[in-house]
Design goal:
Layout lengths: L2 H28 L1 H4 L1 H16 L24 H22 L5 H14 L2 H35 E4 L2 H14 L6 E4 L6 E3 L5 E5 L4 H17 L1 H14 L4 H23 L4 H15 L18 H12 L6 H19 L25 H14 L10 E7 L2 E10 L7 E6 L4 E5 L9 E3 L5 H18 L1 H5 L3 E10 L2 E9 L2 H5 L6 E8 L3 E7 L1 H5 L3
Parallel strand pairs: 2-4
Antiparallel strand pairs: 1-2, 3-4, 5-6, 6-7, 7-8, 8-13, 9-10, 10-11, 11-12, 12-13
Length: 535
């Protein structure tokens, strides 16, 4: 696996999820009451989805932010911008540390910058990242194993008698299939343990009256599927162990799951029952012990401000606004789709699909020459209107049978230039004034299918303007790709055969084609080798 794929996912996921986490913090602080805890938990679920799914949807707006200095096509624009900006910052720091003479610190900074550019640093960081993932997973496994062993060592017996009947009645009312319940000692508070074969651990010291309320709480955890929420939290923390915002979000989401569980518990209760249930939570808080974040178990214990928030939420009569929660869910889901839209639109458009096939025009006068040149100019959608251009006709200096037509808009560089003979066979076509002078080349990113489609369209184009040359276009090669300011250019050549390519023979035709943001032939030359040397 290439490290570029890892960095694409990690950088995009952490940027998008980081923004969402900050927004969730604000929502929890100011809109918890009208939104409700269920809506907040749904928001955390969407954050987890962005952190866990290596998905990238195509977005045409992303094309515009691709840095021309990120030459590896496997690096998507967001990650490319981060890499380029980081290298620029390090280069600037290195220049400041050099201060006109050699310094060890400046040399180290320059070495680091060069290492990022050459991918040496990227490989080392990828190794560190995977080591961190392994360490986080190992710690979670160890924490859970140790917790489960302690519970097993302290297990006394399954509940029975009247308490078992009351527990089964609670499960029936809540629509939950009963899971085993064991008295355990020592145990500070009840907890739901496990994911696939869950059970409830109940403190041996729990009073008969409080035990029913405690069991109701754990049954509601089971109803909410909070054990699976725990798995999502651990997966996010393991994959993004380096991001403190992810750990903060995991802790906050755990609190919100507890509050959502409380909402389910108190839904059928009157105020007196709510108050009694809140007293049970306060007594549990006095024990100041609960399963850690890395343990797949729920716990009733909360302290400090979170306990205050929990009690106030239980005792208040006002319910959340359902319409606001639904609106939040819809808007958040739309934002999630947008957060995945981090990929470029890489589809190569087919050439001239909306135009009729062009055919040669006999050239017997200057007017016919200009008219023919305008047809070629307009075929692929030039940005400057032909009415704004001045058209000029000359004979080629080395061949009186070849006509040269060029157009300019008052500048020193022609906007368009074309050479063709009296029969209308186009020899060369240039658009030198419509693209930047300097391009940053990168590895070719066109797939084989894209290359084949593009070559077929270009071959048909050549057949219309120079049939004799088209007959010699039996093999092709793409050898370069370049990006600049959101534009994408490729270079290619046609040969008579594959053998001609292997023998380094002259090309039949050479082309440079702009394929993004729109497809245009920028340069076309017949018999490229004889004009400019061997291809």
């Amino acid at each position: 696996m290439r490290t570029a794929l890892i960095y694409n996912f990690l950088i995009e996921a952490n940027i998008m999820a980081g923004i969402a986490i900050v927004l969730m913090v604000a929502l929890r602080r100011f809109l918890r009451r009208p939104l409700g805890n269920s809506a907040l938990c749904f928001g955390w679920l969407l954050v987890a989805a962005r952190l866990l799914l290596p998905l990238s949807l195509p977005n045409p707006l992303i094309n515009a932010i691709r840095s021309p200095f990120a030459m590896d096509p496997a690096i998507r624009p967001i990650a490319g911008q981060v890499k380029v900006r980081l290298c620029d910052a390090l280069a600037d720091l290195g220049n400041r540390l050099w201060s006109g003479h050699y310094t060890a610190a400046g040399n180290r900074v320059w070495t680091l910058s060069n290492g990022i550019i050459s991918a040496r640093v990227s490989i080392v960081l990828a190794q560190v990242y995977f080591a961190g993932v392994i360490a986080a997973v190992a710690w979670f496994v160890f924490s859970n194993a140790r917790f489960r062993l302690r519970l097993r060592a302290g297990r006394i017996e399954p509940i029975g008698g009247r308490l078992l009947e009351q527990y089964e009645a609670v499960c029936a009312r809540r629509g939950v299939k009963p899971v085993p319940v064991y008295f355990t000692d020592p145990l500070p508070s009840a907890c739901l343990v496990g994911v696939f074969r869950p059970y409830i651990a109940l403190p041996l010291t729990a009073s008969p009256q409080d035990a029913v309320r405690v069991l109701t709480h754990e049954v509601c955890h089971l109803k909410n599927g909070d054990s699976f929420w725990g798995v999502l939290r651990l997966a996010c923390c393991a994959l993004h162990w380096f991001n403190p915002l992810v750990w903060i979000a995991a802790d906050m989401s755990r609190t919100d799951c507890e509050l959502r569980c409380d909402d389910r518990v108190i839904a059928p209760m009157d105020y007196g029952e709510r108050k009694a249930y809140a007293n049970v939570l306060v007594l549990a808080a006095a024990r100041r012990s609960a399963p850690g974040l890395g343990v797949l178990a729920t716990g009733m214990t909360m302290t400090g401000r979170r306990l205050k928030t929990r009690v106030v939420t239980i005792l208040r009569e006002k319910e959340a606004l359902r319409w606001l929660g639904v609106a939040f869910a819809v808007l958040a889901s739309m934002c999630l789709i947008g957060a995945f839209a981090t990929g470029e639109v890489r589809v190569v458009p087919r050439l001239f699909r909306s135009h009729p096939a062009i055919s040669r025009s006999t050239v017997a006068s200057e007017k016919q020459a200009v008219d023919y040149a305008k047809v070629l100019y307009a075929l692929d959608g030039r940005t400057v209107s032909e009415d704004e251009l001045e058209w000029h006709v000359e004979n080629a200096a080395d061949d009186p049978d070849v006509c040269c037509v060029y157009a300019d808009n008052g500048g020193s560089i022609p906007v368009f230039e074309v050479y063709f003979d009296r029969a209308g066979n186009v020899k060369s076509l240039f658009a030198p004034g419509t693209i930047p002078d300097h391009w940053n080349a990168c590895e070719l990113s066109l797939s084989e299918e894209e290359q084949e489609n593009l070559a077929d369209d270009i071959r048909r184009f050549i057949a219309g303007i120079n049939p004799e040359t088209a007959e010699r276009c039996n093999a092709y090669r793409f050898w370069n790709e370049a990006w600049q300011d959101g534009m994408r250019l490729v270079e290619m050549g046609f040969w008579n055969s594959e053998a001609a390519i292997e023998n380094n023979a002259d090309m039949s035709a050479y082309l440079s084609v702009l394929i993004a943001p729109e497809t245009r032939i920028m340069n076309f030359n017949v018999n490229y080798g004889s004009l400019f040397g061997n291809g």
